[in-house]
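Q: Could you fold this chain for me?
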Amino acid sequence: MMGHSVRTSLLIAVACAAAGVSGVPAASADEPLSCVPAIGTLQILPPLPGLFLPLPTPGGLAEFDTLALAPAGMSFPPAIEFRDYTQGFNDYVDVVLRDGALYVRPRASNDPWRKVTTPGCLDGGIEAISVNGNMLVAIDARGWIYSLDNLLSGPLLWNWTHSYGGPIWLWPGMKIPGSESDSISSNRWALSHRMSGSFVDAAGYRHPLTAGLVQIVSLTGDGSRITYQDPWLPADLSYEIGGPVGGRFIGESLSVSGSVTVVMNRYGDIYSREYDLDLAGANHIPGRYTWQPQGDKPSAPNQLAERLDPRFAAISLPAADWRHQPKVPGEITSRLSIQDSGPAVEDRVLVVEGRSGGNTGFWSKPLYADSWQFTATGQPLQQALLPADPRVDQSALTLAPEVDLSFAGSLPAGWTLTLDHFDWAQTEHAVTLTSPSNRTYPVRLYTTDELRLLPRAPGLDDTPRGLESALDLRPANPFAPENTELADYIRTHLNNQQIYELKIQATRSRLYLETLNATLPRI
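A: Sure. Below is the predicted structure, expressed as C-alpha cells.
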C-alpha cells in the first residue's frame, strides 16, 4: 500500500516478526519462479520494498555503465512517450521490453541502451511490464507479478522480489486478473505508484500526503469492472474501483499513474478518476475522513497533523467521481497513457496515440485541461485506429447490463427504503425513501469498501461485505415546509442529521443496516 508513511511505524514489528517467513502461507504448485526471491535480491529493509523514496544513488549515472550493452542491431524507439505494457519511464530512467528482457537508459538521454540484471529464470521470460514512480512490475507468461523497486535510484540498488499482497508484501506472489487470456500483453492493466505531496478531495479541500501507495489496476470481465491489487492488502481480487456511467462503461484500454486511473472505450470516450484505498475513505490508519460538511476549516500542514487534529479539514467523502474527458479531435488508437507532471495527484498528463493531417504521433493534455494538442513523431502506430467520432459522446454505444441486485425493506417508524440495481463498487447510489403516508423521497446513499485483513471473493456472495456509508437526505429538501414528515423522521430517528452515517453488511440476498438495525431483503 505505501512505501513510506506513518503506517510503517505501526507495522514494523509485524514486518520483523515475519522476516523469517513465519506464518506466511506457502506458495501453491502453480507458483512464481523460484529464482526470484521473496525478500528481494537487494532488500534494504526487508520486507518493505522502497521504504525510503528514493534511496540515494551511490554512483550516480555512472552506475548504468555497469550494465551490459544491448545487442547490436536491436531496435529501440528514439523517445519514450508512452507508459504501456512494452515500455515506460519515470523521472530517472527509460525502460523498454525486448525479447522477454528489460533494457534501460537514463531518462530522455542519448545514452546507449543497456540490459537490466534480472534473475536467470525470469530473464527472457517477461511478457509485459508497467513502470510508475519508484517501481516496475514484470509479468511472466502465467501472469505472475514480479516487482523491481528502487527504480528512482541507480542500477546498483535495483531490487527484484516476487512477494505481493498482505501482510505487508509478504504474501508469496499474486497474478494479475485474466492471466489465462490475452490480458497479460494488453492495455488492460497498469501499475500505479503514488508519491504525490498533496491532493484535492471532492469538496475542494487540499490534503497533504506523506504516504506512498502502490496498486496494480486492471480491467476485468467485459471491461466494465476495474480491480485493484495493493501489495499491503489481502491477496485477492475483491477490491474494485466502481467504473464510469454507473459501472456500465465498457473499457477497451486503461492506464494509471499515481492513483489517477483513466479508461477509454472502443469509440475513444475517456474518463479519469483520482482513486485508491486512502482517497476512497477506507484506510483510517493514515487518514481522517468525514461525510459531513466542514465549512471553512483549513488544510493541515502535514498528514500526521490532519490525522490527529480536528481543527484541520478531514478528507471529505464521498470520493471524487469520474471526470468525463473531452474527446480527442482527431484519429486515435486504443494506446492510452497517463503520466506524472508535478507534485500533486492532479498533476497528470493524458497521452493517446493517433494521427492528425496524415502525420502519426500522439495527442496530449493536462488532466484538467479542456483541449488536446498533437505532437507529430513520424513513428508507426502501434495499435489500430478506433471508429471514434470526435464530435459525439459515444459512451452509451456499448454498456454493460445494469446489476441485477435490488433491495427493499422496513426502517424504524414504518418507513421503507428501496435501492435498485445496487452495484456495491459504486460510490453513489440512488435510493427511495417511502413514508408511512406512502409519499416517496429520492435521496442518495454513499458507500466505500471497508479495510479488510483476510482474503475474500470478488463481488457480493453469501459472505457479508462490510461497507462504510452515509444516507444523504439533502436531495429531498427535508426541511422545506411541505416535507414536515421527513423532517420529523430525521429529528426523531436520524439524530437530526441530514447526512446519516451507517455501517452496512452486504450479501447477494440482503443488506443489513447495522446502525439502524434494519434488514433490506433482495427483491
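A (continued): The CA atoms of residues 165 and 231 lie 4 Å apart.
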